[in-house]
Sequence to fold (165 residues):
Amino acid sequence: MSKGENKNMGKWFKVSFFIMLLIGTGYFFGTICKQIGQSYDLILSPSKELLILLLWFLLTLFAVLVSSGLVVALVRPIWTGIIAFALSGLAMLMGWDLTIGSFILVLTYILIAIFYTVSVAKEMTQRIKFSVSPISEGQAILTIALILLACGSLYFGYSEYIKKE
Fold:
């Protein structure tokens, strides 16, 4: 194997690792959204279970943000990052529920993630030195999208409860 082939294989290994990390954290976030939707009654009565659920939510939120930052900063070409976010959204759906509401929320996440990927890549090509500021500035909107997913899950849980009553 030549040096060029070795370098190319190492690059694709790195890209695959970061994509799998994003997909895994997306699935993990989806399972937490499912738990939030099923635990709507905990919101009205603060307890240890609610605290644990909120800590898991913060952990998965942080994991998705870190893995998305790594994908946006280190995965090239840009279409590879876009595919990674689409696969992450599919993994969220698999961990959550396959309903119209969750599909719409995850589609919103994917569109915002694509916008985030394109804007960070554009900003990074315009800079001479590497800087994390475009990544951290773009993550605010991605954070809002992920929180919107969790709130939507809570809403769907409450709406099912109301329909049963």
Summary: Residues 18-164 form one domain.
